[in-house]
Amino acid sequence: MSVLNEISQLIGDVKGKKPLVHHITNYVTVNDCANMVLAMGGSPVMADDLAEVEEMLAFASALVINIGTLNERTIQSMITAGKKANQLGVPVILDPVGVGATTLRTETAAILLKEVRFAVIRGNMSEIKMIAGLNVQIKGVDSIASEENGIEIAKALAVKLGSVVAITGAVDIVASLDHVCKISNGDKMLADVTGTGCMSTSLIGTFAGVTKDYFLAAIAGITIMGLSGELAKERLTKDQGIGTFKVNLFDEISKMSAETLLSRGKVE
Amino acid sequence: MSVLNEISQLIGDVKGKKPLVHHITNYVTVNDCANMVLAMGGSPVMADDLAEVEEMLAFASALVINIGTLNERTIQSMITAGKKANQLGVPVILDPVGVGATTLRTETAAILLKEVRFAVIRGNMSEIKMIAGLNVQIKGVDSIASEENGIEIAKALAVKLGSVVAITGAVDIVASLDHVCKISNGDKMLADVTGTGCMSTSLIGTFAGVTKDYFLAAIAGITIMGLSGELAKERLTKDQGIGTFKVNLFDEISKMSAETLLSRGKVE
Amino acid sequence: MSVLNEISQLIGDVKGKKPLVHHITNYVTVNDCANMVLAMGGSPVMADDLAEVEEMLAFASALVINIGTLNERTIQSMITAGKKANQLGVPVILDPVGVGATTLRTETAAILLKEVRFAVIRGNMSEIKMIAGLNVQIKGVDSIASEENGIEIAKALAVKLGSVVAITGAVDIVASLDHVCKISNGDKMLADVTGTGCMSTSLIGTFAGVTKDYFLAAIAGITIMGLSGELAKERLTKDQGIGTFKVNLFDEISKMSAETLLSRGKVE
Fold it and tell me: Where is ATP bound in this sequence (chains A, B, C) (predicted)?
C-alpha cells in the first residue's frame, strides 16, 4: 500500500478513536493547536501543572511538548510528563520552538532529549540543525537557515536519537531510522500565520495517537497541514488576505478526506 | 411574560449597562471568552494575580471562574476572588473544566464549592455528574457521559448547592431551587470548536451582570450560544468548514436580536 | 515629504528587514499580536522568562511591554528586559493596559516608567490620563474617560517623559517632544474586538524596528490599524458581524499598500 493510502486510512482512525492529545505548550498558539486537534477529529487537553500532568497522561493517546514559551514551572512539568509517558508507552512529540535562540531553550531541549524518548521531533531547519549540533544562525523563532542537505541532517539525527525527525520548510523532510521521505505540499502563506509549525506538531501528535508507526504519523500531520494550506490559498479571492487564509486553513483540515489526500498529496 | 421574552430584554440590558465581567480563566480559550463578552455587549477583564483580583472586583458586575488550566498561583486567586465577590454581592459563575480528570481539578473544585457561593455552575454531563458525586467515566475535558437523567441530576445538585446548575449537551438543562428548563437550540459543530463551553459560561457571566435572576441569566447565555451555533451552521457553504463556522458563531452572537431569539429560541 | 509618504515607505522597510519584535505581553491577546506583526511583515517572538529575556533581546529590533495580565514573574522580566533594551539601544514600547484599575497595574507602570526609557507609550485616554497623574475614572481595561484636551495631555506627557505618547480613541493623537498629530482613521467596531489596542502597540513596535523616528513609527502603526478597520468594515455584508470583521482586519493589514495608505490615510 502506498504511503498516501496508509495516511488516508489514519484520517478515519482518528475520527473513530478520537485520541486524547495531551499538550504542554506555549500560550501563544495554544488555542489554534487545540482547534487543530479537534478539526482533525481528536480530543485536545492542555494541562501543564506538575500536580496533574502525570494523572492526565493516564487517558492520553499522545503527549505533545512544545517549548514556545518556557518557565521554570512548565519545564519541570515537561520533564516529568515526558518520563511518565515513556513509562506508559504513550508517544511523545517534541516541538523545540526557538531552540538555540536562548540558553534556556537550548538547555531545556537538551534536558528533554536526555530524559525523554521522543517518538517524533518536528522543527524548522534552524531548530533541527541546532539539535543536531550543527553550526547555525538563529534569530528568534523563525528559521533563517539554509535548507540544503536536509535529508542527510534528518537521517543522521534520526539515527542518533532513535526518533523520527521532521524538518518543515519549503519542502518537508521526514526521516526515521531506515526511511526518509520528502513532502512537497504547502504554501508560503503558512509562514505568515503564527504557529503553523506548532499546529503541524499537534497534528502529528493526533496521528501518533492512533498508530505506532510514528514515521507515518509525522508524514500524515505534515502532509495534511501542507495540503490544507494549498487548498486554503486556492480559495482566497483577490480582496482577501492572511485572516481569511487562516480561517480557510481550519476549514480544509476539518474537511480533509482520503480522496483529497490521495489526489493531491505529494509524498515521495 | 415568557422566558424568551425575559431573556430577549436582557440583551438590551447588557448593551445598555456594559457589565464588567471579571474572569480568572484558562489560557487556552481566554481570547474567545473575552471576544464573546464583547460581542454580546459586555466588557471583559482578565486578571488572575492574587495582588489584584480583589481590587478588580470593585468594578465588576460578575466573576467567572474557569478551571481549564490550573496552577497553584491561580487557584489561590480563584479562592480569594470568589470569597471577595461573595462579600461584595457580585455573582460568581463556575466552569469546572475537566473536573474528575485529575485530583488537582477535583480538589480545586471541591475547595471552591466549599469556600465560595456560586450563582451558577455550568458544565458538561461528565463534569456535573462528578460534582454531584455520581459515578462517571472521565477522559480529558470532553464529556463522554450518558446524558440520561439530566433533569434529576441538575435539580438535585441545584438544591444541594443552592446554585443554578446548567448542564450543556445535545439538549441543555438549567435547574434552580424550584425551576427547571430544557433548551433545544444548538448544533453539533459547537463541540468541534474548543471552548464553546467556556464561552457559554462567559455569556452566563455577562447576563448575570445585569440581572439578579441567575436562572434566567443561565438560560440566556446557553440559549444564545446554541441558537448562534445553529445560525452559524446555516450560513456555511459546502466548501467551508470549522474555521468559518467559528467566525460565523461570533458574527451571530454580535447580531443576536430579541426578534431572532423570540422566533428561534427553543426553551421549555 | 508628507507624513503619509514617509509611513508608506516604512511598509516596504518592514517587509524588507523583517524586524524581530520581542514581546512580553498578556495571555489574552498574544496570538493576535503575533499574527499582526507577521501580517505587517515583521517577525514576532514572545518570551517572558527572566532566564531568557535579555538573551532574546540580542536579536530584537524592538521590545513591546504590555501589562494586560501581570504577575510577579513577568513583572521582573519586564523591568529587566526594558533596562537591557535601553542598554542595547533597542526601542521599547509600553502598553499600560488597565493602569489605574488596580494598584498592581499602577505600581508596575510607575516602576517601568522609572527604570526604563520608552520610545513610545500607547494607551487609551483613561490609561494615558492615569499615567499623566490626572484625575480619571477607571473601570476595567476599557476607556470611559472623556477625550477632551487630548492634544494638550499627550504633549505635556511627551515632554515630561521624553517619550512619544499616543492616545487612541475616536480620534487618535500622537505627540513627541516637538510635534503632534491627529489621526482620523478607524471604525467603532475596532472597540468590539479584544486587543485591537494591544495589536496597535505591536504594530508600533514593528515599525519602531525599522526607523529611529519613533513619532513616525507610532503614526504608522496607529494609522494602519485604523485604516484597516475602516476597510474591514466596508467589506462586511449585512449577514456578517464581529467575527468576520476581525478576519477582514487581518486581511487588510496583510494587504496594506503604500497606495491605499496615501489615498485613504487621514493624518494631520
Answer: 122, 168
